[in-house]
Amino acid sequence: QVQLVESGGGLVQAGGSLRLSCAASGSIFSINAMGWYRQAPEKQRELVATISRGGISNYADSVKGRFTISRDNAKNTVYLQMNSLKPEDTAVYYCAAETPRRYWGQGTQVTVSS
Questions:
Q1: What pairing do the DSSP bridges indicate for beta strands 108-113 and 57-59?
Q2: What is the pLDDT of residues 40-73, one digit of tens each?
């Protein structure tokens, strides 16, 4: 079992920045990739960014150049630095950990006002 706890969401004006954190506990040795997903109202959950154990990252086209995912393996924590935020980034952001199965955090709300 893996437990994930997110923090760092909130309300920010367009053009602003936020940093999300996700701390993993439990069977952390089994975690391979970690990532962030988001779900806006009445929309499907979508991939934002992922990062492998070795640090290789992947981003959705909509966030490339604005968001940066990073991982501190010593702290079992993954971060999402979000810059130049837009109203369309408003969503609940979920942390995910990939083992043979995917674990989810509880989600953190990010609201970007215009």
A1: unpaired
A2: 999 999 999 999 988 999 999 999 999 999 999 8
Residues 8 and 11: their CA atoms lie apart, in Å, by 10
Q: How far is CA 18 from CA 27, 74, 100, in A?
A: 28, 23, 31
Q: What is the gyration radius of the CA atoms in the chain, in angstroms?
A: 13
Residues with Cβ within 8 Å of 24's Cβ and at least 6 positions away in sequence, in order, are 2, 3, 4, 31, 34, 76, 77, 78, 97
Digitized pLDDT (tens) for each residue of the chain, 114 residues in all: 999 999 999 999 999 999 999 999 998 888 999 999 999 999 999 999 999 988 999 999 999 999 999 999 889 999 999 999 999 999 999 999 999 899 999 999 999 999
DSSP one-letter string for 31-70: ---EEEEEE-TTS--EEEEEE-TT--EEE-TTTTTTEEEE
